[in-house]
Design brief:
- By secondary structure, this protein is an alpha+beta fold.
- It has four domains: 32-134, Sandwich (Immunoglobulin-like); 139-239, Sandwich (Immunoglobulin-like); 241-254 and 479-538, no CATH class; 256-474, Rossmann fold (3-Layer(aba) Sandwich), CATH 3.40.50.
- It is 17% helix and 36% strand.
- The longest helix is centred in the N-terminal third of the chain and has 21 residues, at 2-22.
- The relative contact order is 0.09.
Length: 538
């Protein structure tokens, strides 16, 4: 019986051992253990570093293969695994010490995790919590990311973005820049700029979509914080508006409103005489294009007309024009009779005189009725001096040209031509005193700006070919102003219902007009232009 009992005991022992091996809860297979499961670092400044360690153990019966040890989390950049960069294997019972270094790139409380990825059956990954505190300056950009939404192509919107020092030390910002099509940033303060803890600045982020698509931008802030460069993300989308159609139906006589402003200084005597004597020849050329014209000669500080508003129905209009022009030439006549309003402070600042004349075209004013909605406004300025408004009133030629355009309502309906000295060196005028004509700066600039005609005052500017050029410029035949800025690729042009190839025209963004380079529509033609505007932003 003793022998039997021993046998049974042995049998029971053998059965229990087998059960233990098969027991899913025993330590068979691959098992990982990490210790400790949390590392708490000291509070450090940016130039300091602290190293702490945790241990990985293989506590199973099969080898532990560690694939990678990495740092994860939004603030992971403040921690670095020092001694393990590749896969390694631990046999049962072996262990590996992992060193983790902390040097703050963020301020205040910093959290991350050390992730151990392995083949352990009981846990595919092991985590060690990492906590610390950064005693540094650190920037926060808000909002980030920023979605500026959908807007019409060509329309600008803006949004304030705040940059705050959320750290414990000062931060000096050396550069703020913006990348991305259609994105921009406006910041008026001088850089570099230092922000103390809790101090903030606001920048104006702008967005003007340039195409029908979603686009992204990046606001970049460079500073001396440990992070070095902060990047904030933006996004937005462009939308196209509905197609616009504009039509022009021209009678045989397209209307023309023509204004002459003449320098009244003494050196202009011969030139004003030449202008007066060639007016009839100019009207003859103009009549080839239009008999529906109005002519006004400006005078005085107000720009009020001299001799009235001339039309083909004005009795002896050529004589009246000649007398009006000569008013500015006669030393005594500005103070007598019909010339009494000709005394002007702006005799060598003709753009100011012309602007004042246009300002006085409303009902009840001295030049009322001169501006007609359907007519081209053609200003012809004659001087042997540069434009001097900027010295007299502080207004530049462009400011004055823009004011004239705004009063007329469309850049494409205004042309400023100049009979002045050559730019940049001037020329021999042959005037009363035989003096030189100074370069017509300002006048020539305004002429180029509005697609007018430049004629040298020293040359035979009254040649029939030149007068014809001035006459052509007085009527709307080769330029068609659009009500809105256009997306150039969407413009389609037809004349008398027939499409016109882009080989014959171009779009001028400055004047917002379709300009015919050749084969301009003839009098009486109908012109149709369709396009998609860049945005009716208001």
């Amino acid at each position: 019986m003793r022998w039997l009992g021993f046998v049974l005991a042995v049998g029971c022992t053998a059965e229990n051992s087998l059960n233990e091996i098969k027991n899913p809860e025993d330590n068979s297979g691959v098992t990982i253990e990490v210790e400790p499961q949390a590392l708490i670092f000291s509070a450090l400044s940016a130039d300091e570093q602290e190293v702490q360690s945790f241990t990985i153990r293989s506590v199973g019966v099969e080898p532990l293969n560690v694939d990678v040890v990495s740092i994860i989390g939004e603030q992971a950049a403040s921690f670095t695994v020092l001694n393990v960069g590749t896969t390694f294997t631990l046999d049962p019972g072996d262990e590996q010490v992992i060193d983790v270094a902390f040097s703050p790139l963020d301020a205040n409380e910093i959290w991350a995790e050390a992730l151990v990825e392995s083949n352990a059956g009981n846990d595919d990954q092991a985590l060690v919590t990492l906590s610390a505190e950064g005693l540094i300056g650190a920037l926060d950009v808000s909002p980030n990311p920023l979605n500026l939404g959908e807007h019409y192509v060509g329309c600008e919107v803006d949004n304030d973005v705040t940059i705050t020092n959320v750290g414990t030390e000062a931060v000096t910002i050396s550069d703020i820049s913006q990348l991305g099509d259609g994105f921009g940033v406006a910041f008026e303060q001088a850089l570099p700029l230092t922000l103390q803890p809790t101090e903030l600045i606001t920048v104006d982020l702008t967005f003007m979509p340039l195409q029908e698509s979603e686009v992204t931008g990046q606001l970049t802030i460079v500073s001396d914080e440990p992070m070095g460069t902060r990047i904030a993300e933006q996004s937005g989308s462009g939308l196209l508006q509905n197609q616009v159609t504009q039509e022009w139906e021209f009678a045989i006589d397209p209307p023309a409103d023509i204004m002459f402003s003449v320098d009244a200084s003494c050196s202009m005597s011969d030139n004003t005489t030449q202008l007066a004597s060639n007016f009839s020849a100019f009207i003859t050329q103009l009549s080839n294009y239009s008999t529906n014209w109005q002519v006004l000669v400006t005078g005085g500080d107000t720009g009020c007309n001299v001799g009235g508003i001339l039309t083909p129905n004005t009795a002896n209009y050529a004589t009246v024009f000649q007398q009006a022009v000569k008013c500015k030439d006669d030393f005594f006549s500005p103070y007598f009779g019909d010339c009494s309003n000709m005394g002007s402070s702006y005799t060598e600042s003709l753009l100011t005189e012309a602007r004042n004349a246009i300002d006085n075209t409303d009902a009840g004013e001295c030049n009322a009725g001169f501006i007609r909605n359907e007519a081209m406004l053609h200003m012809i300025l004659v001087s042997d001096e540069p434009e001097q408004s900027d010295q007299l009133t502080g207004e530049t030629w462009q400011m004055l040209a823009d004011q004239i355009i705004a009063k007329r309502g469309s850049a494409g309906m205004v042309r400023i031509s100049s009979i002045v000295g050559d730019v940049p060196n001037g020329c021999q005028s042959g005037g009363w005193f035989g003096s030189d004509a100074d370069p017509g700066t300002g006048y020539v600039d305004a002429t180029t700006y509005t697609n007018g005609v430049f004629l040298s005052i020293c040359d035979n500017w009254s040649d029939p070919a030149n007068l014809q050029l001035l006459a052509e410029t007085s009527v709307l035949l080769d330029a068609y102003p659009l009500d809105y800025g256009a997306i150039e690729e969407t413009i389609q042009v037809s004349v008398n219902t027939f499409p016109v190839s882009e080989d014959y025209w171009h779009y001028d963004t400055n004047t917002q007009s379709v300009m015919f380079d050749s084969n301009a529509p003839q009098e009486g033609s109908s012109v149709t232009i369709t396009y998609i505007p860049v945005g009716l932003c208001e």
